Structures are given as C-alpha cells and as structure tokens.
Amino acid sequence: MHAIEVSRTGGPEVLRYVDTAQPTPGPGELLIKAEAIGVNFIDTYFRSGQYPRQVPFVIGSEVCGTVEALGEGAGEGFSIGDRVASAAASGAYAEYATAPAFLTAKVPDGVTSDVAASVLLKGLTAHYLLKSVYPVQSGDAVLVHAGAGGVGLILTQWAHLLGARVITTVSTPEKARMSKDAGADEVLSYPDDAAQFGEQIRALTGGAGVAAVYDGVGATTFDASLASLAVRGTLALFGASSGPVPPVDPQRLNAAGSVFLARPSLAHFMRTAGEFSWRAEELFEAVAGGAIKIEVGGRYPLSEAARAHEDLQGRKTAGSVVLLP
User: Fold this and answer.
1) What are the CA-CA distances from residue 186 to residues 127, 164, 211, 227, 268 (Å)?
2) Three-class SS of residue 218?
3) Share of the chain residues as helix, strand and coil, in percent rounded to the nearest 5
4) What CA–CA distance (Å, rounded) separates 246 from 238?
5) 203-245 confidence digits (pLDDT tens)
C-alpha cells in the first residue's frame, strides 16, 4: 500500500510517499480502508519533532473509510464494510490504517467521507473545550482565535448554538466572511499589541472581558488572550500553531483577575468508550442534522501531503484539509 512516512523530522519536505506493508489489526482494533484522511496541526508537531516520536513512522491519526478486517475482540458493534471514522488511528496517512474499536464511530448516512475524515478530531476538540474545559452558558461572551480554521469554525457554530456571544480573530477578509457566516458576532484581526487588544475586547463586552478564550494559536496570541479575560475567566490553550508559549509566571493569572489557565489534550477527554461515544454521537448528530456545517477547504492527493502541510502552516487554507488516497 502507499503511505506517507517520516524517516527524519523537519519541515514538510520530510514527508515521503512510500510503498509499505499493509497493517494487521491487533486485539480490539479495526483495519480501515481509507476513503479520506484528515490533516491536522498536531500532525505538523509530530512531523517537526516538536512532539517526539521514534522514526520512521507513518504519520496521521484521522481517517474515514470502511472496515476491512476485525482484530480479535473488535467485532462487537462493527461488521466488515461498515463506514466508520476515527481520530485515533495509527498511521492514518495511508491507504489502510488501524484504529482502536472503542475510539471509532460509525458515520451516519448523509455525512460525506471528506467531511467525516475532517470533522472528528476537530469536532471532538470543540466538544471537550465547550462542554468540559469551560462549559459555555447562554449569554457568555467567548473569544475564539483562528476563527476560520477547522476547529475555529466548529467552535464558533457550536458556541453560537449554546447561546454565547462569539468574538473571533482571522487574518484575511475572506476568512472574516467565513467566520461571520459561521455565527461570529464580532470578527477582529489578530492582535498586534496585547494591551490594546484587551481594551478592544473590553469595549465589546461592556468592560467585563470574555468568560473564556479558546486559543489554538499559542505564542503570538497568548498575551492578548490573557488580557481579554473577565475576572475568573478561563484561557483554554489547546494548540500552538504559531509556536509554543514561553514559561508563564503563575502570578500573571492573579494579576489578570484570578483567571484559570488550562492546557488540555483530547486524549485526556475521551479516556473511556462511554466518553468517546457521548462526544462523537453529539458531534455527528449536529453535523448530520445541519446544525454544524463543515467547510472542507482543501483536498489533496495522498502523494501531495507535503504541499498540504505547507499550505496549512502558511495559512493558505480555510476550514478543514483532507488527503484522498
């Protein structure tokens, strides 16, 4: 089969399109024949070595396709030919990948493969941020950085459905339009000056600041995020697309208004089959019913994974990005 292998860490150029052996599902695993593969910022962290991993490895964790084979003990609830998606696959940038059955969901009718492949990781992330890290209440004001990104668009739509007032940041007029279409009440440019940005947020919130900031950008937005919070607000730092945030003096959280800083990871919010199914079922129900619309902004052949990474990191994409085997 064809796959994208990382034999040394670095830039997008290290992604190699290779022939390799088809994997065999282990106990509790499914073998999935890929129809579409999700591309996520976390993939760039593994590729670059920011998240260390032994090389060589086939990159990727998100896939939609059909069940090709069942590992021992994985048959309960699944059959050969079922259309499924997982954000916990091993070596997803490939024509075939394995995934734990308890972290795999059946894809409802009406949800296309490219949408299913690009929504699960981002949608589960949005779910745990909005319902577990800071549970949004109707009437809350929240700030979402990278509002036209894959996670940002889902966060905006879902927070809006929950009754929140949503403020987003974007980098271009086209992305501002997308963010507005997703339900953003206010769309701002990325912050140049943290203090000025905080004042701008307070002017939009009657002087109070926002109840929560959902920040997947990191280094270039962190100070502005902190400056935007209301007293006892929550800064959920769930990514670092602009680079990692330098060490933070906890006293800054006191000075900002006794605020909370969380650095969550999806794996810690779907530790059981029950927790995963709760999140996945609510997500797919919202997508299948049209309450949340998924923008697939980039579709690339599997062989052009390096170009997909270049465009993703260069902010040339909007919405989700998928590879097609």
Assistant:
1) 22, 12, 15, 17, 31
2) coil
3) 35, 30, 40
4) 15
5) 999 999 999 999 999 999 999 999 999 999 999 999 998 999 9
